[in-house]
Amino acid sequence: NYYQQATLTTSKPTLYFVNGSIPSWRVMMALYEKGIDFEGKRLKVMSTPKETKSAEFLAINPRGLTPTFVDTDGSIIAESLAILHYLEEYYPNTLPLVPVEKSEHIKVLQRIQESQNLVDIYEPLEEIVFKTPKEEQLSHKDSIIKTLQLIDQELAFWEMYLTKTTFIACDHFTLADCAFYPVIAYLIHRGLNLDKFPILKNYINTIKTKPAAIKSHPIDWAEKGGKINIFRVVNNIVVNSNKENE
After folding, report:
1. What is the pLDDT of residues 135-177, one digit of tens each?
2. Is there a cis peptide before residue 49, judged by omega within 30 degrees of 0?
3. pTM (global) more than 0.90
4. Domains (ranges, CATH) in the chain?
5. φ, ψ of residue 78 in degrees (nearest 5)
6. Which of 28, 96, 226, 237 shows its CA 20 to 30 Å from the CA of 211?
7. Per-residue pLDDT tens for 120-129?
8. Dihedral of CA 14/17/20/26: which sign?
């Protein structure tokens, strides 16, 4: 996490984002929920060269990563979870998304950080599907099985949290929901089935009707899911590996 100072000031803040990116989605959801008027600048990463690697953007964020938030006074902050805290700190006249009451405040801070656990557990599946040659994918069967087990174990924590509160950290929507909802919504887009987690499934159905969730929903994402169903692909890899070993 870092802060920089830009040379130009603007009439409203700017968010550089990548469509469908969990980190960008988190920040957009918070901006809409807090009612902060901002200019969104979408950067495309599926083209060559990636727009995140342009000289213009690298001058703003040398790491070439989104989201990057440029405030009206020229301040620049990157990293999604850091931006969430920044918005709460430096936009005090907007809807507060972190409770003052100590026990709830603690839970919000903790859940914000915990939301990254599911991302970190899931990412190896995309590595296998998108970056591993097909002829080598069957050799990753054990890793896939272990990752799927870890995902279920992690989801069980969130299911448990929701047995105690309406939202992720307490009984009202907070920054913790901005941090977590895009993670689980992204996994659903990639084929995650939540039938084993009915409370979590109900939570998703509640959140996705909120105006902030609707406005921040990735552009052109179909309700039925993405073009590549990651969970179906990795389960097929396991099945095919078992057949090969019979």
Report:
1. 899 999 999 999 999 999 999 999 999 999 999 999 999 999 9
2. yes
3. yes
4. 3-90 (3.40.30.10), 102-245 (1.20.1050.10)
5. -120, 175
6. 226
7. 999 999 999 9
8. negative
